[in-house]
Amino acid sequence: MNSTFNLKKKLPIIIFVVVSLYAAVFATFMVVAGILPSRIYNNERYLARTDATANKVQYKRTVQDDGVVTVTCGRMTGTDVVWEYKSDGDMTLQMHYTFQVTSGKAKLILVNPDKTVTTLVELDSAAAADSQIKHPDTSDNTAAQETESTMDLELKQGNSQIKIVCGKGTSFSLRFYLNGL
After folding, report:
1. In the chain, where does DSSP find H-type helix?
2. What is the DSSP letter of 6?
3. pLDDT band at 135, cuts 50/70/90?
4. Rounded to whole angstroms, how far apart are CA atoms 149 and 145?
């Protein structure tokens, strides 16, 4: 009977400790998941890593048979690999793209095998708001920035990646293809 009484006294303490540990692990995860992706936007050492860290909402990436890559996202913070290629030697490819940021800021970067990071294009909807560029497809006349262009990509021998890097809560659409593969 005495051992049952001791267990009843210790049970609330045990439950409190287990719940507290769970809450601490959950809080740590939420802080890392929420803060880390927003701090990597300008950290080239982190961006050069081969992995991706992003919080994404309504994210969709498709690759068509002809090689056209389309990525749309309702809201993203962090980085994601949108294209990867392993080259047997140094080469130049031509990339044609259409890139639009309707809120937040985003950039496309090229990460070469030697971990050098090159910013290919960067857009910021705040800059669009400052210059009075408005998004025609929104009823609230939200500021947007869009660009369409063609550029040469210098790839080194090895594994190269194109990544999308987004500031906190960025909404964007991207469409690109590469000639020369």
Report:
1. 2-39, 44-47, 125-130
2. H
3. very low
4. 14
In angstroms, rounded to a whole number, what is the distance separating the alpha carbons of residues 63 and 70? 6
Of the candidates 110, 73, 114, which has an alpha carbon nearest to the alpha carbon of residue 95? 110
Query: Looking at the chain, how many residues does it have?
Result: 181
Which residues have a Cβ under 8 Å from the Cβ of 168 and sit 6 or more positions away?
Answer: 37, 38, 77, 104
Do the domain assignments include residue 3? Answer: no
Q: HSE-up of 8 (CA within 13 Å, CB side)?
A: 5
Evaluate if residue 136 carries a pLDDT over 90.
no
Two tokens, residue 17: 């400790």
Range of the domain at 165: 40-179
Q: How confident is the model at residue 9 (pLDDT cuts 50, 70, 90)?
A: confident
CA gap 50, 20 in Å, rounded = 35
Write out pLDDT tens, residues 79-104.
999 999 999 999 999 999 999 999 99
Side-chain half-sphere exposure of 127, counting CA atoms within 13 A: 9
Say which CATH number the domain at 147 has. Answer: 2.60.120
